[in-house]
Amino acid sequence: MTPAARVSAAIEILDRILAGEAPEPALTNWGRAHRFAGSGDRHAIRDHVFDALRRRASWAALGGSLTGRGLMLGWAREAGVLAQVFTDAPHAPGAAVSPPRAPSETEALDCPDWLAPRLRADLGAAFVPTCQALQHRAPVFLRVNLARTTRAAAALHLQEEGIATREALVASALEVTAGARKVQASQAYAQGLVELQDAASQAVVAELGALKGLRVLDLCAGGGGKALAMAALGAEVTAHDAAPRRMADLPLRAARAGARIALTDAPERLAPFDLVLADVPCSGSGSWRRDPMGKWSLTEAKLAATLALQAQILDRAFGMVAPGGVLAYATCSILAAENGVQVDAAMQRHGLVELGRRQFLPGTEGDGLFIARMKRV
Ligand SMILES: C[S@@+](CC[C@H](N)C(=O)[O-])C[C@H]1O[C@@H](n2cnc3c(N)ncnc32)[C@H](O)[C@@H]1O
Fold first, then answer.
1. Among 44, 212, 260, 283, which residue's CB has the most CB atoms within a 10 Å radius?
2. Known binder of ligand: residue 315?
3. 7-19 residue pLDDT tens
């Protein structure tokens, strides 16, 4: 496919997404209906689509409409390639283009209007750089399985397979600088030497301190990224999730990593634990680079429901912490209401003692995450 034909494909897929189809099925369905597209084409189209979703407000303004065509016009104008792409040539988008509109301040930052005042109040001087960080692709990070190898040895192994890396935020983290698409087919990955995991997510686990020999409950384990990282640090991990199917791959991932993780649908029966991690469902605002639709689909009502659920999960988690043990609360959010405010309220409700808290903002070092540790007295 020509570069312009790839843009035409992205326009078609973006229109489906704007009409309500989720991005992944929209991309898969397009691929099935256009078997002639090679993997290079599909990757390029996918990049166009996700870039446009991250830049939805600013590119729609620059392109003159919130449509697939408007978004890609906005991209072409910003990239200075309008005349090369919108040409009327076979398979290229048509040449008749709508005029641009100057984006408002929040549109220029691709921040939803309703959220901007709240985020600005929460982040202060970090508001603008954080919004700008969310406009771009996230770096790819790996967690080195330190139970199996060293970071230097893993980097060498990956290099031999054409995957270049450099050291990142914490001792277990590598950033992939070339060959990211080869990771999941690599021997290093198959042998459990590395896992895909954001560097700030790894840093959150590092913030938990020494875990060796501790009985740990991961109450919202999901795919098990943090459960695996805690197991690699020597914790005896039990994993639970309200949606057990989300943990479906966890036994396989644990086997690959040489880790033992017990799954349970009734964690209360195994309580108390030395440490309970509540990595709660959240707005996902710290990882909107990876899930740009999340940014545009969040509403006040959804946020309020999420806040109520977080408080409920915190209360449940507290009930399973041994006296003297630790309750850890994590989100991938950058909103104070989901982080510090939630933790302050839980400490008051349960007489917990704070051991520390840390907010990571999205940027070159990883996603935006929050972690707080509280001691049960
Ligand atoms: C942020 S994700 C967890 C990510 C995971 N810990 C990781 O590091 O890969 C939150 C998880 O909480 C689960 N969840 C939602 N409500 C819950 C509840 N009431 N109790 C336990 N888990 C819940 C969701 O199914 C989801 O998998």
1. 283
2. no
3. 999 999 999 999 9
Which atom of ligand 1 is nearest the CA belonging to 241? 22
Going by pLDDT thresholds of 50, 70 and 90, the confidence category of residue 96 is confident
ipTM score of complex: 0.99
Indicate the pTM of the whole model.
0.95
Query: Which atom in ligand 1 lies closest to the alpha carbon of residue 229?
Result: 8
Write down the number of H helices and E strands in the chain.
Answer: 17, 11
Residue 280's pLDDT band (cuts 50, 70, 90): very high
For 129-157, how does the pLDDT look when each residue is reduced to its tens digit (9 = 90+)?
Answer: 999 999 999 999 999 999 899 999 999 99
Class of CATH domain 140-196: alpha beta
pLDDT given for residue 67 in this prediction: 97
User: Is domain 208-375 classified as CATH 3.30.530.20?
Assistant: no
What b-and-e string marks burial along 329-360, b requiring 16 or more CB atoms within 10 Å of the CB? bbbbbbbbbbbeebbeebbeebebeeeebebb
Where does CATH 3.30.70.1170 sit in the chain? 140-196
Q: Starting at the earlier edge strand, list the strands of the sheet with 369-375.
A: 261-263, 236-239, 215-218, 273-279, 321-331, 369-375, 353-360
Question: Is 344 a known ligand-binding residue?
Answer: no
Decide if 276 contacts 327 (C-beta within 8 A).
yes
Tokens linked to 307: 């806040």
Helix axes 56-63, 68-79, angle to 10 degrees: 80
Q: What pLDDT, on a 0 to 100 scale, did the predictor assign at position 98?
A: 86
Whether residue 279 has its Cβ less than 6 Å from ligand 1: yes
> What is the location of CATH 3.40.50.150 in the chain?
208-375
